[in-house]
């Protein structure tokens, strides 16, 4: 069994064995949300993808420092260098202080992440809380000759950088091609070159979010925050930087340029990107109007949705695709995920009630090994899920007496489900969360025993009454040879 | 009915009518926790006190911007100007990055506050995220002549300030008395005067949390953060500053001095302080070892505790004392609060089932007016609770047919309970929170209807069986003239 974790590194464009720089420590940085609106499906995917990685690394006994930032300043409309700050705009429209907008959507983001069972990062720094660090980064890049001041703003000099290092190593883009595809500067621009990007922007008089700096009262450029905070909390060099594929260019490309221009190296060993979510085959986006918030999904309040989907259905749906594949949202797919998850959880219940035999014919170690092998293969969660589904068949065969399992294999089987389904995939049983659920179970069992009694007394009126009333309440009763079974 | 809110202003030492500076807007700043350990009873009280105020102001249609900070830097051991940073020390002991400690305890604090049904503030700024603002404040105070640099640190010059303004207006302390009670400086100190306090501290080489400044690489003094963040988010002048009584001196006194030295006025119109919690008559403190965390209370895991207490029990216990009285913790007092709250909630259930008469003799408006009058009297929550208990008697009399209530008074009565118990006191019914509780209720009702049927068929074996089985499960059945009632 090959127990070495391999991840796809966007930088080398191939799968590489994961070897931390300073084991057992792992530094992991992931780009978090820009908090000017409710979290949507496109936020759920990176959060769950890197939660899977975070959980798996910890399961492998690494000491992980997981930094996921909150972007609350400097992210301008259309990800551009000109225009209104996304949060400033929302604050203007809602007549709030920008930090009220930030707090509101950050709190809501946290609430959704908790429901999705996404573990909290070790550090969740805010861009606005690290202005000094971004100013220091900018100073360093100017000092090293790769940035220039222009009218109170500071720009990264992409062409000059490209002469010494190579701009485009992450995205594979070539500067000359990029330049030929960009409109020429109109002579009015503060930039020397259209590809140059802002490290610091001078604030216009009406701009609220502003801080003093050596160049102007202003605010940091969007790309600066991740370089500054990654460096502050994870050091000059760290293991993994993650984020959505949409951030690869220009955001992450610019981060590499900033890191290299300030400290002489790209800082990050493995760049990992999750693919995008489409909706019925189309790209999802605010501008396209096919945008589904996580809250909509949870309560079914979006006309695209046929019904509400529970947080664990969403989580399971996302993990049933490999993180590097596009994932198409549809009601059918979500309902399939819902059913599949219910089957798995039902299987765990059965598993926990199985009887052991002195001699069994089932080998649970093979299952466990396969799960590790596929998780190690670039976090292949859909295959791990498939292995668990395979094991369900065995569980049912053992329950019905067609197969046997011995004590030690039963323990391994239980441990494998606990480890993979609950600890690593991060599924939790939502049904067992309510406060009085144990009591509900007992009361329903009691009623159904009453019904058995009524039947044995040939009091079919009562027995039918009980079944019909329970059905009305959403409880399905199944008669069995020697008793009953029921589910909500 | 006098419907004007009156609050006790620590600054004037009397009750004053609350008149916002710029109605309908209200600016409210409250000192939040220093996040180097788990929240304890001493954190629950200010959080709940100012949550009560926040809820009541919103209920009165004020637009409240509530700022409650997180202290994550600059708070040194023993609240002193020398010694280790509380968070830095914890980080050193646990071999973590200081911001990991901050994140961990901030997340836990949020979790406890959510359980206590404390509403989130509008903005929750972190001290470490506002270093620039604290540097700018320090510059301004130096510029105005009330602070001096000494060996890379900057101190507030209390004696000089006292000559122009008065140091001690909040605490009523007199500078000369303070000076005579302080040991003299040993000639080694950087300070000119022992009462001077740090605005900026130069960091020793081993100090991790440090930022560049015009004076040294260092960190802000503890008192600077609240002045800087209050000013940033609420303006030069704002309505209310709250906190625990233990912060009145020196923390809030120094804040007033900083505000006045930088902008010429004390900034805050109403200073409001909650009193302390004692344990069995003794002051509670980490050093005294009689320290109870909120989590301990929730799960009963502290030898002082006879049992676990639910979040709403804690909340109700705190609100049953006036915020300016000391509140003595004891198991007896908490158990009394638990029982009292259960009675109130049971009363609300009865209330929701009451029948109306054409003509009633109960006047609910009088109750409602009394509740407003006492909330308006410096948030007299214990008296409001007493009024609700009084109303319980009436509710029970109406239920048993001894008194009558007409439709409009019943509506006012329900509205009064909803407004005061749930919206303003912020109590929630913990029993109704579980996911399947509605279903449990329906199933038990169904079983008890079956039992009624059995009884009418004189099938006493079945009717007794049902009652006994439910009793075993912890459900008490009460027979009534025309039906049944039950409770868990």
What would you note in describing this structure?
Two copies of one chain form a homodimer. Chain A is an alpha/beta fold and 488 residues long. Chain A has helices spanning 41-59, 86-94, 98-115, 131-143, 158-164, 175-180, 224-234, 248-263, 294-299, 311-319, 331-351, 364-376, 381-399, 407-424, 437-456, 460-472, and strands at residues 6-9, 14-17, 25-30, 63-68, 147-150, 153-156, 197-202, 218-220, 238-244, 268-274, 277-279, 282-283, 327-329, 476-480, 483-487. Chain A folds into three domains: 6-274, HUPs (Rossmann fold, 3-Layer(aba) Sandwich); 279-431, Isoleucyl-tRNA Synthetase, Domain 1; 434-487. Chain A is 45% helix and 14% strand. In chain A, strands 4-3-9-10 form a four-stranded parallel beta sheet, with helices on both faces. Chain A has a four-stranded antiparallel beta sheet with strand order 5-6-7-8, covered by helices on one side. In chain A, 43% of the residues are buried. The model of chain A has no long low-confidence stretch (mean pLDDT 92). The interface between A and B is large, with 49 and 49 residues.
């Amino acid at each position: 069994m090959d127990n070495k974790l391999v991840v796809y590194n966007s930088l080398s464009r191939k799968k590489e064995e994961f070897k931390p720089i300073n084991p057992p420590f792992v530094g992991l940085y992931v780009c978090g949300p820009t908090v000017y609106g409710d979290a949507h499906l496109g936020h759920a995917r990176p959060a769950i993808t890197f939660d899977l990685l975070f959980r798996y690394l910890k399961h492998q006994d690494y000491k992980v420092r997981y930094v996921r930032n909150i972007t609350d300043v400097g992210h301008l409309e259309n990800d551009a260098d000109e225009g209104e700050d996304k949060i400033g705009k929302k604050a203007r429209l809602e007549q709030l202080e920008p930090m009220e907008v930030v707090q509101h959507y950050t709190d809501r983001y946290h609430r959704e992440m908790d429901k999705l069972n996404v573990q909290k990062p070790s550090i969740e720094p805010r861009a606005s809380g690290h202005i000094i660090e971004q100013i220091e980064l900018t100073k360093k890049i100017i000092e090293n000759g790769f940035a220039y001041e222009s009218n109170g703003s500071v720009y990264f000099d992409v062409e000059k950088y490209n002469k010494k290092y190579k701009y485009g190593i992450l995205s594979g883009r070539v500067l000359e091609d990029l330049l030929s595809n960009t409109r020429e500067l109109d002579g009015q621009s503060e930039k020397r070159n259209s590809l140059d990007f802002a490290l610091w922007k001078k604030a216009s008089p009406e701009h609220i979010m502003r801080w003093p700096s050596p160049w102007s009262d202003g605010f940091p450029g969007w790309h600066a925050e991740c370089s500054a905070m990654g460096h502050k909390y994870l050091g000059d060099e760290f293991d993994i930087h993650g984020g959505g594929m949409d951030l690869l260019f220009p955001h992450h490309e610019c981060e590499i340029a900033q890191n290299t221009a300030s400290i002489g190296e790209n800082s990050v060993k493995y760049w990992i990107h999750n693919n995008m979510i489409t909706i019925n085959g189309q790209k999802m986006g605010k501008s396209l109007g096919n945008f589904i918030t996580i809250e909509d999904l949870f309560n079914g309040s979006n006309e695209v949705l046929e019904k509400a989907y529970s947080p664990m259905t969403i989580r399971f749906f996302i993990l049933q695709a490999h993180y590097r594949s596009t994932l198409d949202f549809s009601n059918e797919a979500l309902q399939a995920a819902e059913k599949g998850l219910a089957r798995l959880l039902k299987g765990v219940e059965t598993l926990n009630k199985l009887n052991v035999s002195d001699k069994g014919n089932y080998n649970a170690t093979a299952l466990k090994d396969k799960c590790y092998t596929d998780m190690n293969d670039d976090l292949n969660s859909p295959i791990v899920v498939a292995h668990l589904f395979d094991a369900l068949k065995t569980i049912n065969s053992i329950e019905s007496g067609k197969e046997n399992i011995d004590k030690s294999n039963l323990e391994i089987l239980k441990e494998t489900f606990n480890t993979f389904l609950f600890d690593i995939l991060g599924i939790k049983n939502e049904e067992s969360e309510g406060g009085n659920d144990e009591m509900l179970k007992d009361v329903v069992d009691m009623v159904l025993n009453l019904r058995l009694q009524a039947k044995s007394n040939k009091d079919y009126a009562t027995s039918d009454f009980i079944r019909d009333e329970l059905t009305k309440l959403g409880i399905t009763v199944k008669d069995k040879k020697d008793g009953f079974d029921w589910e909500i």
